[in-house]
């Protein structure tokens, strides 16, 4: 009886694999699901304040249902460092005209396939970019 109780406690208290496992950084391709949102951020010249005169930039983000960890031991580097509890990922498409072709996607659920990398310029507005 005690063995059963210990097993049940271990199952109840153990985090799920999704909570423990981290997604890898580039070059490994991943699939992540969430809702696409558009949000404004300050741009040039200072990347500090739209009200203060900086250019208004609109970026698309993938808002996740649950936080994820990004960075596996074999994928971290000087730039790509582990991030836990990631809830939003900036979408940075490689194809020209992506936003125009997909403009109806804002506010909808999407499955995004791509590679993840850590922010490293002022143009990256979330810690993780896909």
How would you describe this protein?
This protein has helices at residues 2-13, 17-20, 98-101, and strands at 22-23, 29-42, 56-70, 83-90, 109-115, 117-118, 128-129. Helix content is 15%, strand content 38%. Strands 1, 2, 3, 4 and 5 form a 5-stranded mixed β-sheet that branches. It has one domain (18-129). With 130 residues, the protein is α+β, with helices and mostly antiparallel strands. The model is unreliable at 1-20 (pLDDT under 50). The protein contains 3 helices and 7 strands; from the N terminus they run ααββββαβββ.
Number of domains: 1
Q: Kindly name the structural category.
A: alpha+beta
Distance between the termini: 49 Å
* Global shape: globular
- Please write the string of helix (H) and strand (E) elements: HHEEEEHEEE
Roughly what is the average pLDDT, rounded to an integer? 85
Helix count?
A: 3
Question: Count the strands?
Answer: 7
Work out the helicity level.
Answer: 10-25%
Strand content: 35-45%
* Contiguous uncertain segments of 5+ residues: 1-20
Helices, strands, pairings?
Blueprint: H1 2-13, H2 17-20, E1 22-23, E2 29-42, E3 56-70, E4 83-90, H3 98-101, E5 109-115, E6 117-118, E7 128-129
Parallel strand pairs: 1-3
Antiparallel strand pairs: 2-3, 2-5, 3-4, 6-7
Summarize the structure.
This protein has 130 residues and is of the alpha+beta class. It has one domain.
Give keywords.
130 residues, alpha+beta, five-stranded mixed sheet, two-stranded antiparallel sheet, globular, disordered N terminus
């Amino acid at each position: 009886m005690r063995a059963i109780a210990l097993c049940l406690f271990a199952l109840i208290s153990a985090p799920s694999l999704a909570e423990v496992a981290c997604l890898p950084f580039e070059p490994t391709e991943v699939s992540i699901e969430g809702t696409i949102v558009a949000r404004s951020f300050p741009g040039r010249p200072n990347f500090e304040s739209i009200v203060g005169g900086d250019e208004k930039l609109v970026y698309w983000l993938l808002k996740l249902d649950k936080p994820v960890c990004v960075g596996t031991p074999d994928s971290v580097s000087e730039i790509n460092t582990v991030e836990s509890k990631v809830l939003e990922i900036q979408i940075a498409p490689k194809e020209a005209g992506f936003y125009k072709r997909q403009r109806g996607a804002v506010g909808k659920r999407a499955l995004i396939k791509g590679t993840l990398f850590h922010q490293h310029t002022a143009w990256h507005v979330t810690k993780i970019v896909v």
